[in-house]
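Quarterly update from the structural biology core.
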Amino acid sequence: MSDVLIEKSGRLGLITLNRPAAINSLNHDMVRDLAAALASWEHDDSVRAVAITGAGERGLCAGGDIVAIHRDAQGDGSQTKSFWRDEYILNEQISTYAKPYVALMDGIVMGGGVGVSAHGSVRIVTERSRIGMPEVGIGFVPDVGGTYLLARAPGELGTHIALTTARLTAGDAVVCGFADHFVPSAELGALLEALSEEAPDEVIARFAQPAPESELHAQREWIDSCYSAETVEEIVARLERNATPEAGKAAQQILSKSPTALKVALRSLRSARRSPSLAVTLNEEYRVSLACLRSPDLVEGIRAQVIDKDRNPQWSPARLEDVSDDRVATFFRDLGDEELGLS
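Predicted structure, tokenized:
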């Protein structure tokens, strides 16, 4: 059976990510299949809207297939480069799609899963949604347009999410701009059935309910105060000085991540905040991603978290103060002929 199920249901083009044992993690063929389906439906008058969902009970998509990335990164990395190129082009394709693109962000939605959902025009979360950008925990940096989304969250919420790898609930996702509507998970089947015959705005008006309160948004005061610092070192220092218990926990979480990835991520977020478009941000993310592919922390982070699962990565360098500004700058160098070139 295919890893992506593509079908028409009435006037709905339905995409189902179909690797439930891997929480529908994306591989290169899946990205190509998604892009081809979207291209074929964009000018098909029989298709009024497109929806994406995930097979199984665990979630829409847990991200890219990082086991395959780990294996490729120990070689020449060529397969991962090609995968990321097509994935980021797909993210832009979704964000500019001419028809309603309805993403059912039920269950786990991480990394690449955010890329195929949160750039859509109709983004639905449920009480089961757990959304995040966990990249710095494996020596990587938020990508798939994630820095663009995070940089536009209220205040410094996006910085907190990126540096701690915090998981967003449905209420958090709506407040932070990763989602638009809340629908109970038990209603998703009926919602998809309705989309096959009715326009998305009519369906949403009938099924959407008020989103739960965001606990993250309620903590804006200490988050904005601490994460507005210009360096990761100062962010950690402010968190450690803050009397709020959650601030101290956040400092501990940050200090367990890759020091290099943290510093590159902060620069990426600040750059994305000034970016005029998702396409411009994706171009820069591609530069950063390829630099991460050459960095020892990505291979080590995946080993520690996913392969050996000892949860004890040996980062290089091991301390924030040993990651120089010059080192961070190398992650943003122009790629010449390898540039992504979205516009």
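The chain has 16 helices and nine strands.
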